Structures are given as structure tokens and as C-alpha cells.
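Entry:
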Amino acid sequence: MADSSNNHPKTLNFNVGVLGHVDSGKTSLARALSSTASTAAFDKNPQSRERGITLDLGFSSFNVDLPEQLREDPGGHGYDNLQFTLVDCPGHASLIRTIIGGAQIIDLMMLVVDVVKGIQTQTAECLLIGELTCPRMVVILNKTDLLPPNKRQTAIDKMTKRLHKTLENTRFKDCPVIALSAKPGGPEAPETDEPHGVPELIELLKSQTYLPHRDPGGALLMAVDHCFSIRGQGTVMTGTILQGALAVNDTVEIPALKVTKKVKSVQMFRRPVAGAMQGDRVGVCVTQFDPKLLERGVVCTPGSLHTLHAALISVRKIGYFKGSLATRAKFHITVGHETVMARVTFFGLPPGETHQTSTTEPQLPTSDPHASEPDLRPLDTPFSFDREYFHQDEYVIGQREAGGAGQDPEQWALLEFERPVTCPTLCLVIGSKLDTDIHANACRLAFQGRLLEGFEEKSYSETTLPRLRIYKTKHKEGQVERVTDDYTVIGRNLFKKETNLQLFVGLKVTLSTGEAGVIEGGFGQSGKFKIRVPEGLSLETKQLLSSSAKKRVKGGAKREPAKEDDAKTDSQPICINLRFKRYVFDPHKKLVQI
């Protein structure tokens, strides 16, 4: 057993996210389950109280005896009891960013579904966030008291069957479904009405617990959700430790305020402790600062977080998203604990190049004919400044085989943030279109990825982007206007009048008659140019050009009809083809021959 010399039993903290559609009864459920409500719990927002809808991540907890499977787990020795910390995530469609913020610290998800309404758009989005961030789930069919008693069990069975069908192509296939009523009679009912089915839910939750991987190593990162001051003691920040550990007397940094503070005391659900680690829900008292400056945000080991103006990420489209992912489009990007608008540029491997090998082979489910199940390949696809990448006008969808299986090619994206964001490297990134109509029955989560490289300099477009070797291929076509000698022709319609022809000098071109030439420079002021043909023009080409020249002369003389064969040669002018590539971020706009 744990060393209990500090007179406090050793508690394992297990974070349970309570997600679900607006008004599905999540807060009532959390309240029914909880014995200790922490500071942020249950809608401190007055606007939320008026409507009975949760607006911020509420936290509350309850303790139970350590379940049998954890006692038998070699890593479970030393713990006396289990604390369930309930993270009540808001169901508002417009506040999906808060849900994502909460989902990054969740060990088990409770998806609350209104038994009468079933799966709704928001429920599907919650499910998706769960798939991206959480290994296990329990589904709760709430509000069973609204079903007529004689038809209740039939309705519950029907909805359970439907849910299992919905979940069969997700990572939560065969997850447990339990029916209950957290607040019989609804929000207005007297508190005396006892919830139904809650003890059974607690037993179910206990059976679903596992020893979460908690790593005290590495830099501290704590997500703060509430901040207040205690006169004479300091400022208290409550939140959850996402990585690392902290202890009394440590120095921590608040990146948003650009200050460091000393930890004076640490509490876990109102009990003083010497320290805390990843996964723990804590109150940390530090030397005084104005709490209004940090209602939500992050605290970290000094110097460990980076404030980024732009980033490179691996990217994968979310199958349920119906829109296209276009370069230059703006998306809401949730990264770390922030959501910010960013302009996105997609790029991939050059055409014909094979994929970079991933460390693990994906095991893709194949039962979904629409292939909207998650692609299980690792997201941290390597990126290198040393190799070339191909610029894409939009995200490329892979070929789907007849059975629906298939993968999108490996792709990356450059994110250029509208304001700087503070986040750890390799963190999960989610791109959404949160401005989509809430009532439209469509998923607004568009893509996911991992942050691979961050650009901290404000002047990244001058300092770092030129190192990005992302290119576009170009094909220009013009016509030969006339020949000046056996080795030189004058071309037209390849460039605009204002084009800087110096950029193109020395590039090779091919004529539609087969000759290869080199652009020597401009000719006159109207965008015409001179081409040197080192091997000389063939006899047929010279004949073609001389006959079309004659035709132009005759065409210019009034009343003299052009000969039929001249008209024919001029209707098929000799074309000049120029192929080159240009690096998108090259400040010199240099062109490279293909």
C-alpha cells in the first residue's frame, strides 16, 4: 500500500469527459454523480445559469474504492482509492472549441444522449472529438423518465441497437450503453426526486477504468480554467496538468503574461499536497498577480512553450467533413488550448514519389462503404526542410477501392495564424469550419494533424518560409511569329507586356515542330521575345514559317485573296512550349527548368 505518512490516502485521478448535445442533461448527470464540486464546476457563468446550459468546462469529482482490476494491476499498487474527475464539456455548437480544449485531458468519455431525440449533429461531432482524443467511451441514454412506462424498455432497446449501429465503424465499437434518468422531471423538478440508475452507472464506470499512462517527466504543461486571488496568500489557478509535474517552490511561467511565478502551495480537491503530476486536477497558489489577466490559458516550465506565428503540420481530412479543403482558405485551428483563425496552404510529395515510410502499419477498418472511419496511420508524418514538396490547390483525396477502403496520400499544411498561439510541439491540431450554420446537419471538423515545426519569428515569411522547398509547375504556351535566320525565331503570346523577361532568360523551350530552343531575351516592348535554336530550324519549319509570313503579307493587301494552303498553315501556327517550376516561397522568384 501507499506510504500514507502525510495522513492522506493516495488517490488515483481518472478524468471522465461528459460530452453530448445541448440539453441532453450532462450537467444534471455530473451533479448527480458528484460529491465534491471544484471551483470551476457547474456553470459559474450567469448567462448559462439563466438558460440551464453549460458554457465553460465545469469540473467536479467523486471518490470510490479502488476497483478490483486496478488493485490487481502491478502499477495500481500504492493507490488507496479512485477519484473520478468529471470534465463537463459544453454542448453548444458554437463552443466546440471548448470541447476540444477539454477533450485533450480525458481518459474516458461519457457520451450523453437524449433517449427521445437520439444522435444529433452535435452528438456526432462529440463522437468525432472522442475518436481523435480518447481511447474509451460509455454511452448514456438519459431522460428515460420521459418515456411512457409501458413502452420504456422497448424504446431503450431500440435506441441502444441504433447507437451500436452508428458506432460499429468507430474505435468505440461494442462500447457499453446504459439507460438512466439523471434529473427525473427535468430542470424544474424538485431536488427531492431521486435520480434513477446512477449507482449502476458508477459501477459501470469503475469497470471501465484502467491505469492511465501518467508521465511526470518532461516539461510542465498545465491547462488553467479558472483564476482567483486570496488576499494575503497569492493568486490561485485551477486546472489540469497535461504533461510533466509540479511541486511547491517550483518556478512556473505564464506565457500569456510573459511572467514567471513561484509555487507557494498546491491543493487537490481542497487537500494540500506537496506536488502533482500529469492527469491531476489541481489548484496552484502562486505569488500575487491580477487574476483577471488569466481566466483561461496555460502554465508551463519556464521557456518550454513556444509562441508561434505560423506552423507546419501533418494533415489528414476528417471523413465526415463534406466540404473541400482549399489552399488559401481560412479555418479555425485548435492547437494546444487555443482556437485561432489561420490561412492554410496544403502540400504533398512530388508526383510519382513514393510515400515516406511510417513506423507502424495502419490497420484500417473496411466495413464502411463511404470510408469515413478514422485513418489509423500515425499522424506525426516526418517533414524535412531538405526535400522538395509539391504545392496543392487543395487537399488530395486518395483513390477508394471497391470495398471503400483506401488512404489519402501523405500531406502537410502550412498554417499562418491571425494572432500568435502558445503551444507545445507535436500537439494535436484540429481544423474546423465553425462558422458553418449550426443547424445545418453537417460536421464542421475538417481536418486533424500534428504540429511538426513552429515558426516563432514574426518575420517568418522572410526568415523561414524561403527554406520551404514547395514548388508549383507551370506550362506556358506561345506562338512563333516569324523567323529572323536559320537559328533564331521571334515568339509572341507567351508573356504579358509587363512580365520581367529577365527571369526567363536561359530557359529551354520546345517548338511544336520538334526543335529545342533557348529564350535569349525580349524583343521590342510588347512582350515578344527572341529564341535561339542551337541545332538550327528544319527545312519543313522554315517552309511553314515562310508560307505563313507570305500569307500575312497577302492578308494585309486589300482585295487580294489569300491562297487556301497559306490559310491552312496559319490556322496551325508553330507553338512554343515552356515548362518550369517555381518555388512558392522563393523571394527571388527564380524559375527552374523541368
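The chain has a mean pLDDT of 79.
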